[in-house]
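During the reporting period the student researcher (J.K.) took over the structure-prediction task from the postdoctoral fellow and processed the backlog of single-chain submissions. One of the processed entries is reproduced below for the supervisory committee.
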Amino acid sequence: MTGETMRDLLNTVVGRYGSISMLVSRTGPVAFSMAETKKLTGVEIRPDGLVRLVRENGWAVIDPAEIVAVVWNDDPENRPGQFL
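J.K. obtained the following C-alpha cells:
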C-alpha cells in the first residue's frame, strides 16, 4: 500500500471512535483502539515515506509498504473479523 492511500483511508476516521485494524505482511494483524481518550487526531506522511498516526495519547509510525489491508470498525466492542 502507498502512504498516500493509507493517509486517504485513515483521514476519513480522524476524530471518530472505534478501532483500526491493519494486516501487516509477514507479521499478521495489528489493531489500534480509538476509545474516548484515544481518538485518532491526525495522519501524516513523513519525508522518509513512513506514515505517522497521531492519537490523543500517543503516536505510531508505520511502513505503508508492509500494509496489505486496513479495516475501520465503529463498534469497539466487536472485532472486525478475519482478514481474507
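The committee noted the following: The two ends are 16 Å apart (CA to CA).
J.K. will present the remaining backlog at the next meeting.
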